[in-house]
Amino acid sequence: TMTYGQSSGDFAVPLSDPTKRGKLKAHLNYGSITIRGTARKDVLVKYAATENEGKGDTGATKDGLKRIGGGTMDLEVSENSNYIKVESGSWNNKMNLEIEVPSGFDLKVSSYNDGDILVSNIQGEVEITSYNGEITAEKISGSAIATTYNGEIRVTFEQVKEGVPMSYTTYNGDIDITYPANLKATFKMKTEQ
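^ that's the sequence the OP posted. Answer follows.
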């Protein structure tokens, strides 16, 4: 187990079985998240805290979780049977995450405060929740669900997994979805303002 004290850096998280599909759950209370699908066989996490008041490391926690940073900047990372979690519960320090995953990954991504979410080049099921930020998903093959309260949603599909329900919801912002021309689907749309 490694401990990271600096306010920015990167590290790789190996998968239990690189030949099988994986899933990433990424969550920040405060900050932006970018996830890109690549030809990697592991997951690369780059992190940067924009302000870091905490000093000292808290070290490893039980269950092999890695705690990165100290004090108020905390980022916990765990891997179990190709399910990777990257999470920070800090409300004090804004953090930006850039994560590279194998392109055949399923994603569950969420951010609460002052952060946009960008996902690109993923072949899998994508679920994105943001409370105060834009959601952009590009070059998606599979399915996507996106919800935000304040922000635009833009999703571009290269291929769609047939028969999977998808939804896009925002309370303040536009929704722009691009599907392949040959898609057979039923749409329900509603706008309040």
